[in-house]
Amino acid sequence: MTALSRQRDGDTELWWQLFRLSSYVSHVLQRKLMRRHGIGLTDFIALDVMRQAESKAMQMRELAQATGIKKATLSRVAERLERRGLAKRWTSEGDRRVTFINLTDTGRKEVDLFAATFADELRTAFRRAAGSPSMAPFLKRIRSEPWP
């Protein structure tokens, strides 16, 4: 028996299915967002979290926590978003260690277009994955079981 032919326990197999699904969907979303809007998935995630905050500015630390993006990576994301005029950063007057970020008016308009592409492509990717014999039961299971 080779290492690749061994059976995995249920939780390990579930994790592998989740990993494969996440990798597939992330790849599709990255490619479509880049092709249609010239924006990467990580940049979109940051924009979408800021959009959910509406017009309220966020500390970069809060944005990092909300997105799961490392602070160093988020700094590069913020630079790209500022260059495109989608977001604006500034340092707190009261504490120079604190940096705020929020969407510009252009960013608010653009993120809605990005979000529409994201939602359409996400639906398509899940539909395709649901057609796979190995993914269909997994998707059914994660959609039907409540999350804590």
UniProtKB/TrEMBL annotation:
GO terms (BP aspect): response to stress
InterPro entries: HTH_MarR-typ (IPR000835), MarR/SlyA-like (IPR039422), WH-like_DNA-bd_sf (IPR036388), WH_DNA-bd_sf (IPR036390)
GO MF annotation: an example: DNA-binding transcription factor activity
HTH marR-type domain span: 11-144
A Pfam family this chain is assigned to: MarR_2
This protein's name: MarR family transcriptional regulator
